[in-house]
Each structure stands twice: as structure tokens, then as C-alpha cells.
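Long-time lurker. I teach an intro course on protein structure, and each term I like to show students one example going from raw sequence to a predicted 3D structure in C-alpha cell notation. This year I'd like something fresh instead of my usual example. Would anyone be willing to generate the C-alpha cells for the chain below so I can use it in lecture? Attribution to the forum is fine with me.
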Amino acid sequence: MGSGTRTRPTPSRHKNGLEDHAEAHISIWKEALFGAELLLLHASPVYYGFGIPRGNGSAVVVIPGFLGNDEYLGHLNGWLERIGYRVYMSGINLNAECPNLLIRYRLAKIVDKALRETGGKIHLVGHSLGGVIARAVANQRPDDVASVTTIGSPIRGVVAHHAILSAANVVRTQILREQGSKVLPDCYTARCTCEFICSLKSQIPQSVLETAIYTQDDGVVDWRYCLSNQQECNFEVPGTHIGLAFNASVYALVAKRLHLANS
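-- Reply from a regular --
Happy to contribute to a lecture. Here you go:
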């Protein structure tokens, strides 16, 4: 491990147990290599459903990352359908909203629809910030969720490259300007006391299978903050943060963990 690129920052820890926003000393330039992961995905047998367990038709709700939408997760969504799952996209056009409102007014409808149409518990899969949101939903609705899979998701606090923190500050300013009457003053920070933040500090219930996938070469967030407190739920893969959405190793893990949750 290079001593200059993975030094753990020391942000303040709030009473809710999450780390506040802090800059991580990581190399974001490596993220340009995500294209290679996409090429390797198309060359992998996993992408075509070989050597992995098949799904049983249960619902999978897939949630995009910060500033992302459902489109960039098209490979993941299509693959999940090919291996036997019923995919429900988030409907998020741009993940730059208050997560609490996003869960309450948008994702709740998607989850309810998936439950109604499939008649069974659902699986939640989220990339980056999408995984943080998925984890909050799992804690809020454990009786409806069979598993939650976070992929490169800073579930223990936002410790990220300074460019990401700057973008998050812009988003926070916009949220306060446009949704000021509907959100708390500390919205989009670890200091917030909304239901979304409160749900993150809780352990995932034992009835929900937890999976936290991460890469130590993450150039966007500090990988240490992507780990679950349950060590047996943590799975390391090679690759970039962006490329985790197109990573054959990730896909293989997702297939195995979904199958285990259905067993």
C-alpha cells in the first residue's frame, strides 16, 4: 500500500456515529481506467450468466450513485434480468436530492410496487451513494428486504476526494435553496438528524443479508469507510470506484449473495 495515497483522514465523529465530511488523500486519476473494466466485463463468462447461480424471479431495486442516474447502471440492470431477477430501477434522473425526501417520496413507491408485483421480499443494490441510501431503506423496512448490497458506498461517513466534497457542497446549497422548508438545516451532512441519517447508525437486522463490496484502489472515497462493522460481510475486489458498476468480480459476488439471501 502506498503511504502517500491511502492515509486515513481524521474527521470529527458525531454523536450519531458517522464521520463528517473530510478530504481523503487518494488519487482520483485512476478512475480514468474504468473503461478497461467495462471491456473486461464483456469478455467475462459471468456477464453471460455462466458459472454463477441463477435468480428466482425476486425483485431487485438498483439505486445509482452521487450525480448518477439509472442509465449508467444499464449493464448491471440488464445482467440481473438475464440471470433471473426482476429489476426495478430507481427512477432517479440525477442523484442530487435530499436522501430523506428521495426515500420518502420516490423510492418508497418503487419498493411498494416491487413488493406488490412479486409478492416477496426485495433485494436492494446500490452503487456509491446509492448503496448508502439502500442501507437506510433496509434499516427502515427490514420486514420487506431480503438483502442489501452496497458497492463502493461510504456507509460510515463521507470521506472523499476534495472534488467530490466540493460537488456535494454545491448540491447541499441547492437543496437548502429549493427544499429549505422541507429539510433540516444540516441536510446533506453527517450532522443532520433526519430519519435517513438516524437509520444509517443502526446495524443491519440479522434478517437482512448484508454485503459491502469495496476496492482499495478507490479514487473517489476512502475505501475504509465502505466497510461494514460485520467483517464477514465485507468483500474486496480489484478496480476503480466508477468501474465497480461494470466489474465482473462485483457481478459474480452480487449473484452469489443474492442467491444466498434467497436460500
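Some talking points for your students: The CA atoms of residues 257 and 263 lie 10 Å apart. Strands lie at 19-23, 59-63, 86-89, 122-127, 145-151, 157-160, 209-214, 234-236.
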